[in-house]
């Protein structure tokens, strides 16, 4: 049936430390499933009921308020099969990185970081096993492992998530700062369908310190080279290096060029470009953007030959700005 909806409402699950949502497209306008959650087994009948309610509303044109401005909320002939094509595991919050753009820590707020790094949360394994037993994990599902730093998960947990993805024929996406080299990540990218994504966001140590607020630039690049070596003989995995453009901090073509050169020297085959979340939230409707940002975007857009691409959630805005400012 053709109607306005999105893949997240139909087939996604985002497991956070205290709640579960259908999506994570924005931080404060998400489609709610369980606003309070403690790791208990899910009431799957309730999930089906609330999912069906959202679907019925969409078909009637009574669109959920968080979805009305979302670029992924589109009209098409949707597959309504019950089950998940993407499960985001973000129940952990400990992270030694301190990014100034971090949504969870309010930009690296010291008190928020302290709480995130010390708070206890639940074991996600029982609920994942429940979903598997009830055939809710669809074939070729994506497991996105984020929420804090996955290399700092409790002993055995990341290993379990990698194993679980293999047993369910899933594709595992590991989001990491690259601070610590992980044998579990090495195992995933060397033997299974996996993607490791590391946000470096800088081409120089000085800018890295401004963004990450941690002196780990050299160590991160050392770990990146080891990961790239580990995945070389596995065509089903990839290592993606990411650059989040932060207006006023790292938005110069010179910094961007240094980053791309570091990526190529490390043997990286894919480079992803994103925009700082809060800046994008406040400016995505604008046609005019700062000159430094324009020049940096133009530089990255010129690097397609080096497999530089823009993240899905900003690609339409980038195209609009490029068309307006550079054609």
The first-to-last residue Cα distance is: 39 Å
The profile of the biggest β sheet is: 10 strands, mixed
Sheet/helix structural class: alpha/beta
Rounded to an integer in angstroms, the radius of gyration calculated over CA atoms is 20 Å
Strand order of the largest sheet: 4-3-2-6-7-8-9-10-11-12
Give the integer mean of the pLDDT values: 91
Residue fraction in strands: 15-25%
Described by its quaternary structure, the protein is single chain
Assign a percent range to the helix content.
25-40%
Summarize the structure.
With 327 residues, this protein is α/β, with parallel strands linked by helices. 39% of the residues lie in helices and 19% in strands. Helix 9 links the parallel strand 10 and strand 11.
Structure description:
The protein contains twelve helices and twelve strands. Helix content is 39%, strand content 19%. The chain has a ten-stranded mixed β-sheet with strand order 4-3-2-6-7-8-9-10-11-12. Strands 1-5 form a two-stranded antiparallel sheet. Helix 5 links the parallel strand 7 and strand 8. It starts with a strand and ends with a helix. The longest helix is centred in the N-terminal third of the chain and has 17 residues. It has 327 residues and is of the alpha/beta class.
């Amino acid at each position: 049936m053709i109607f306005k909806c999105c893949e997240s409402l139909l087939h996604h699950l985002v497991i956070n430390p205290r709640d579960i949502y259908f999506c994570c497209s924005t931080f404060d306008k998400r489609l709610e499933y369980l606003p309070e959650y403690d790791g208990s087994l899910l009431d799957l009948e309730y999930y089906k009921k609330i999912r069906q309610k959202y679907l019925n509303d969409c078909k009637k044109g009574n669109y959920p308020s968080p979805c009305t401005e979302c670029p992924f909320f589109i009209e098409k002939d949707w597959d309504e099969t019950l089950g998940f094509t993407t499960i985001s595991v973000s129940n952990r919050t400990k992270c030694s990185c301190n990014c100034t753009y971090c949504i969870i820590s309010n930009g690296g707020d010291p008190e928020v970081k302290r709480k995130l790094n010390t708070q206890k949360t639940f074991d996600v394994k029982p609920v994942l096993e429940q979903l598997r037993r009830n055939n809710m994990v669809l074939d070729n599902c994506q497991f996105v492992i984020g929420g804090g730093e996955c290399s700092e998960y409790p002993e055995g947990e990341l290993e379990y998530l990698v194993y679980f993805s293999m047993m369910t024929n899933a594709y595992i996406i590991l989001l990491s700062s690259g601070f610590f080299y992980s044998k579990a990540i090495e195992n995933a990218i060397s033997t299974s369908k996996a993607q490791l994504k590391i946000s470096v966001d800088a081409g120089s140590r000085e800018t890295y310190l401004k963004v990450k607020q941690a002196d780990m630039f050299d160590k991160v690049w050392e770990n990146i080279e080891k990961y790239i070596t580990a995945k070389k003989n596995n065509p089903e995995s990839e290592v993606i290096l990411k650059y989040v453009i932060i207006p006023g901090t790292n938005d110069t073509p010179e910094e961007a060029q240094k980053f791309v050169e570091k990526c190529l020297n490390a043997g990286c085959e894919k480079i992803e470009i994103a925009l700082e979340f809060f800046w994008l939230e406040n400016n995505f409707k604008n046609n005019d953007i700062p000159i430094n940002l324009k020049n940096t975007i133009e530089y990255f857009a010129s690097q397609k030959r080096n497999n530089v691409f823009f993240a899905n959630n900003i690609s339409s805005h980038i195209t609009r700005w490029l068309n307006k400012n550079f054609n």
